[in-house]
Every structure is written in structure tokens, then in C-alpha cells.
Amino acid sequence: MSRNVEYSDAESGSLVHSPSRLFVTANERQCSLIFAPNYDVSLFGIERFHPFDSRKWGKVINFLKEWGLVSDNSLISPIEATRDDLLIAHDKQYLDGLRSPCRVAAVSEVCFASCIPMFILDRCFLKPMRLQTGGTVAACRMALDNGWSINVGGGFHHASRSSGGGFCAYADISLAIRILLGHQLVHKVLILDVDAHQGNGYEQDFAEDSEVYIIDVFNPNVYPRDRPARQFINRAVYVDSHTTDSTYMRLMREEVRLFFTSFHCDLLVYNAGTDCLAGDPLGGLRLSPQCIIDRDEFVFRAARDSATPIAMLTSGGYQSSNAALIAASIRNLHEKRLIHLFK
Ligand SMILES: [Zn+2]
């Protein structure tokens, strides 16, 4: 991948010029919270029968609105990533493959999707994912100016340049970092991934990149069990199934804080999945809601203390209670003055 400001477009041979069209700037009435109503996946109501809450992103915002913390005017709308944008992080063959319902069914892990016409899958599933991907790029850029940002979506850490899976179609983290590195807006990036699952997508993508440092805190006993990708993690923190609050926070304090004091970076990409919550059918951990709120506060505080810009992504966690938990954690960050929300 070129580190120059201009990218060669693999498809057309033309050059895609800077600045990225996915960068958005906040006006004085907006806080660094990125969201669009079209983040939510809806498939004529069928999605209600899927075990994932595919409307959690909108619910997070609804809670924050109910609590008087944000309004439509104070939120930042992302720009949907186009094929040309996505080619910065993906190869052409992979994107072409997403034109097949069977391939989309495999990536989304929704088997009946293979029976749905492609134009509907694109509108109802892939388009929201492209919008959230644009949100991650915007969040990472915005954090550099504002010190913090939250994309109320994104965090598709199982997608890589040439593959997807685990409900992850597009490699939003890789794309955002590639763009910022390419524009020389950052030189060192730290990914801290605390989703319950291993972030094997970006780990493969940045296998050869010394500019990207990876701390992955995950349960090694659940999907994706990608042992080859583990060699690309700089600091792997294993949390076994059934881990509870005190053990988890001890690991965060002992293993993670060390790196904030020893590693300087220009941006922290914080993949803050909430599937560590007790009862999650996929994560296998047993954390309380309060532990996850404390975890997010710990990371934001560490970022502030080291003057590191932080971009948070909400990633996995699709139980019906996850939206309220994410919203409560964002409210806590606001109340602790680690972020600043307004209506
Ligand atoms: Zn996960």
C-alpha cells in the first residue's frame, strides 16, 4: 500500500486525490458523536427474528436523546464509503464477491440471506455497513482535531483485505488507518480491541506494518480462533470463558495501562465491543454492565492522561440490553468529563 497522498485506483487506473471524501468536520453546534439513522439494518421486519439486535445503533442514540444529552442537530452524519474508497482497504475480487447473495449470507452469518435478491441485500445490509465504515473513517480523522470521537457503529474487526465474516463485511478499521497513514496525518497508531472476539481482520491487514501496534484483549476459546493471525498481535491478553469483573479489570490495569506509558502513538483506535457482557451467546465472558462502563472510563482516562486522541467504535454485542449499556457508558464518559456532549 502506498504511503503517498494519492492512491492508485486499482479498478480505473485513475488517482484518488486527497483529502478523503469521507472526512467530515464538525460545526460549533455538533459534538464528536457520529451516527446516521441508516446505520440500523432492517429487512422488512425479518431481522426481528435474528438473535442479533440489528437496530442497536439507533437505540443508543434514542437513549442519549431521552436523557437530554444529544439532539439530531448535535450529531455528525457520516458519508457512505464508495467502491473507490473501499478499494483502499480491499481487493477487487473480494468486493466483487459481495455481489453474490451466498457470499453476503456467509459474511453476515444470516443463512436465509442467500435467498434474498442482491439489490435488497445491498440496500438493507451492505449499505448500512458502508455508512458505518464511512463513520469510522470520519471518527478517526475527527479524533485528531477534537481529542476524542465516537462512531456509534463500526468496529468490523473480522473483515480483512480479502475476506469477511462474523457480521463484518468491510474492514473499516484498516480503511481508516490506511487513509490517515496515507495522508501522513498519523505515523503511529495503536489499536486497542476489547471486543470479546479476536480482531483477526486488521491483524492480517497490518501484519507487515510497524506503524500499527495492536493490543487485543479477547477470549481465545470462541470464534474466530485464528491462530495464524495471533502472531501479528503485539500484545495479546487472553481472557478465558467465564471471566468475571475483578479478573478482567486487573488484566486491563496490569496489561493495558503499561502500554500507554511505554508506547507513544498519534491515535488510539478503541474497539469497544460489548459482547463481554454476561449472557452474551457468542462472547463467553461474564462481565457486569458496570464493569464495561468502568472499562471504557479506564481507557478514555488513560488516553487523556497520555494526551492521545481516541476514536471509539461500538463493534460487537447484539443482545437486547447492549444498546442501553453503550448509551450508559457514553453518559458516564460525559459525566466524568472525559468527553463533552451537548444538544
Ligand atoms: Zn465480538
Automatic annotation (TrEMBL):
<keyword id="KW-0805">Transcription regulation</keyword>
<dbReference type="InterPro" id="IPR037138">
    <property type="entry name" value="His_deacetylse_dom_sf"/>
</dbReference>
<keyword id="KW-0156">Chromatin regulator</keyword>
<comment type="similarity">
    <text>Belongs to the histone deacetylase family.</text>
</comment>
<dbReference type="Pfam" id="PF00850">
    <property type="entry name" value="Hist_deacetyl"/>
</dbReference>
<dbReference type="GO" id="GO:0000118">
    <property type="term" value="C:histone deacetylase complex"/>
</dbReference>
<keyword id="KW-0678">Repressor</keyword>
<dbReference type="InterPro" id="IPR023696">
    <property type="entry name" value="Ureohydrolase_dom_sf"/>
</dbReference>
<protein>
    <recommendedName>
        <fullName>Histone deacetylase 11</fullName>
        <ecNumber>3.5.1.98</ecNumber>
    </recommendedName>
</protein>
<keyword id="KW-0804">Transcription</keyword>
<dbReference type="InterPro" id="IPR000286">
    <property type="entry name" value="HDACs"/>
</dbReference>
<dbReference type="InterPro" id="IPR023801">
    <property type="entry name" value="His_deacetylse_dom"/>
</dbReference>
<feature type="domain" description="Histone deacetylase">
    <location>
        <begin position="50"/>
        <end position="329"/>
    </location>
</feature>
<comment type="function">
    <text>Responsible for the deacetylation of lysine residues on the N-terminal part of the core histones (H2A, H2B, H3 and H4). Histone deacetylation gives a tag for epigenetic repression and plays an important role in transcriptional regulation, cell cycle progression and developmental events. Histone deacetylases act via the formation of large multiprotein complexes.</text>
</comment>
<keyword id="KW-0378">Hydrolase</keyword>
<keyword id="KW-0539">Nucleus</keyword>
<dbReference type="GO" id="GO:0040029">
    <property type="term" value="P:epigenetic regulation of gene expression"/>
</dbReference>
<comment type="subunit">
    <text>Interacts with HDAC6.</text>
</comment>
<dbReference type="InterPro" id="IPR044150">
    <property type="entry name" value="HDAC_classIV"/>
</dbReference>
<dbReference type="GO" id="GO:0141221">
    <property type="term" value="F:histone deacetylase activity, hydrolytic mechanism"/>
</dbReference>
